Amino acid sequence: MLYNNSFFSIFFGTKEQSFVPPVVPESLKFNGRTPLFLKQIHSNHGFIINDDKYDASHWQQFKNQGDYIITSYPNVVLGIMTADCLPIILVDSKKKLIANIHAGWRGSVLKITKHVLNSLSTEFNSNPTDLEVFFGPSAQPCCYSVGPELIQKVTEFSFGHSTLSSDNSQTFFNLPGFNRQMLIEAGIRPTSINTSFNTCTICNPDMCSYRRDKNKERQFTAVWLH
Ligand SMILES: [Zn+2]
């Protein structure tokens, strides 16, 4: 599904466009450019692309380790692969900047969104109140049952308990809700967070879900500046 704006576009992939990393399909191009992909490691660090020559031929696909990419250059297509983790896109309409973030629960409790906001502020003088945020598809609390390690880490946050729910036997985690709270705490306007593409990967058969399918198939989310 393509979301177009005057100066940027986002492609939210589904199972239909999914593939198994590290082999990127030849046909996968936007404006003639192949998205740049990372070796995602559930960390809180990533890359700033500050060279307009960056296309897939100057980038070692699935080799550079990290979980976000930032650029201010047009036609540098930033890709994130997911199957239950949350893709988060940040767009600064004043500074003409974009970021694509891989936020699973580990990256989320490592505050990856705050690291990206710090980087945008330090390197580009970007202001959180100017940012628009888009959440791609991810695991949702309807299906995302979690264990003690996650519960312990999440409840270290002031808002942590509000992102957990329980039935008789299981606890469920609201991964997008957790990131939403963290972004708002960091100064993002609540009305600037678009969750309309944030369908549940586990109960939606059109999406890749590691939890459901236990395979290496991943969908991607791509963003680029025009
Ligand atoms: Zn669900």
Alpha-carbon Rg, integer? 17 Å
The H-level CATH homologous superfamily, spelled out, is CNF1/YfiH-like putative cysteine hydrolases
Number of helices: 5
**What pattern of helices and strands is seen along the backbone?**
EEEEEEEHHEEHEEHEHE
Given helix and strand content, the structural type is: alpha+beta
CATH topology: CNF1/YfiH-like putative cysteine hydrolases
Q: Can you tell me the CATH class?
A: Alpha Beta
Q: Major beta sheet, specifics?
A: 6 strands, mixed
Provide mean pLDDT, rounded.
96
Unique ligands: zinc ion
Structurally, the number of domains stands at 1
Give the SSE map:
Layout: E1 2-4, E2 8-12, E3 47-49, E4 68-71, E5 78-82, E6 86-92, E7 97-103, H1 105-109, H2 112-124, E8 131-135, E9 145-146, H3 148-154, E10 164-166, E11 171-173, H4 175-185, E12 193-194, H5 210-213, E13 219-225
Parallel strand pairs: 3-4, 8-12
Antiparallel strand pairs: 1-2, 2-13, 4-7, 5-13, 6-7, 6-8, 9-11, 10-11
The structure holds zinc ion (ZN).
The site of zinc ion has 6 residues, from loops.
Can you put this structure into words, describing what you see?
The chain is of the alpha+beta class and 226 residues long. It has a single domain (2-225), classed as CNF1/YfiH-like putative cysteine hydrolases (4-Layer Sandwich), CATH 3.60.140.10. Helix content is 18%, strand content 25%. It contains 5 helices and 13 strands. The protein has helices at 105-109, 112-124, 148-154, 175-185, 210-213; strands at 2-4, 8-12, 47-49, 68-71, 78-82, 86-92, 97-103, 131-135, 145-146, 164-166, 171-173, 193-194, 219-225. The longest helix has 13 residues, at 112-124. Zinc ion (ZN) binds at residues 140, 142-143, 200, 202-203.
